[in-house]
């Protein structure tokens, strides 16, 4: 990496934190969806239906935390918890239409946020942004030899 690695990493950490915060501010005002609830909804939509233990592993949180989050989402009608037809000892978390609507609205707000910012970019900057997104995707891709933490997507993937 060109330049000072420590400075670049600090800038990356700061910009991703601020970008994440700016994207969620409108959603936090309009809904009761916290970042952890949104992340759980997204995982259930993308990979579900899921067992609680699989959801906890995907979200990298404890089973008790995922149970609390799913309980809140279920109380709001955004997911449903039902017995696993293949294993009577387990339950599965599934999306509801209301949950999909919340994810769609959140995606729309996020897209609006990005479009308003990107509108001021030159064509060259848009090309650079596309390259930067590809590099960021590589940052979240498992390193060679490691298995991904998540199953193949099965849901609608908002």
Q: Count the E strands.
A: 3
Category from helices, strands and their pairing: mainly alpha
The helicity comes to: 55-70%
What overall form do the CA principal axes indicate?
elongated
Distance between the termini: 34 Å
Low-pLDDT parts are none
Order of helices and strands: HHEHHEEHH
Number of helices: 6
Q: Beta-strand percentage? A: 5-15%
From the alpha-carbon coordinates, what is the Rg to the nearest angstrom?
18 Å
Strand neighbour order, sheet with most strands:
1-3-2
Average pLDDT score: 84
Sheet of most strands = 3 strands, antiparallel
Layout of strands and helices, then pairs:
Blueprint: H1 5-30, H2 35-47, E1 50-51, H3 52-59, H4 63-75, E2 79-84, E3 87-95, H5 97-118, H6 123-140
Antiparallel strand pairs: 1-3, 2-3
Helix pairs in contact: 1-5, 2-4, 3-4
Notes on the structure:
The chain has 158 residues and is mainly alpha-helical. Helix content is 63%, strand content 11%. The chain has 6 helices and 3 strands. The chain has helices spanning 5-30, 35-47, 52-59, 63-75, 97-118, 123-140; strands at residues 50-51, 79-84, 87-95. Strands 1-3-2 form a 3-stranded antiparallel β-sheet. The radius of gyration is 18 Å and the shape is elongated.
Short description:
This protein is mainly alpha-helical and 158 residues long. The chain has six helices and three strands, in the order ααβααββαα. The chain has helices at residues 5-30, 35-47, 52-59, 63-75, 97-118, 123-140, and strands spanning 50-51, 79-84, 87-95.
């Amino acid at each position: 990496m060109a330049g000072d690695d420590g400075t670049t990493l600090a800038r990356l950490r700061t910009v991703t934190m601020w970008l994440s915060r700016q994207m969620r501010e409108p959603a936090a005002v309009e809904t009761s969806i916290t970042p952890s609830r949104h992340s759980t909804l997204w995982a259930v939509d993308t990979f579900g239906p899921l067992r609680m233990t699989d959801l906890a592993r995907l979200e990298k949180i404890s089973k008790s935390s995922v149970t609390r989050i799913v309980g809140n989402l279920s109380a709001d009608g955004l997911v449903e918890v039902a017995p696993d037809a293949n294993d009577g000892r387990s339950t599965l978390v599934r999306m509801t239409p209301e949950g999909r609507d919340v994810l769609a609205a959140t995606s729309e707000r996020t897209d609006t946020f990005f479009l308003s910012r990107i509108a001021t970019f030159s064509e060259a900057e848009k090309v650079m942004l596309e390259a930067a997104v590809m590099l960021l995707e590589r940052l979240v891709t498992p390193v060679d030899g490691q298995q991904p933490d998540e199953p193949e997507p099965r849901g609608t993937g908002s």
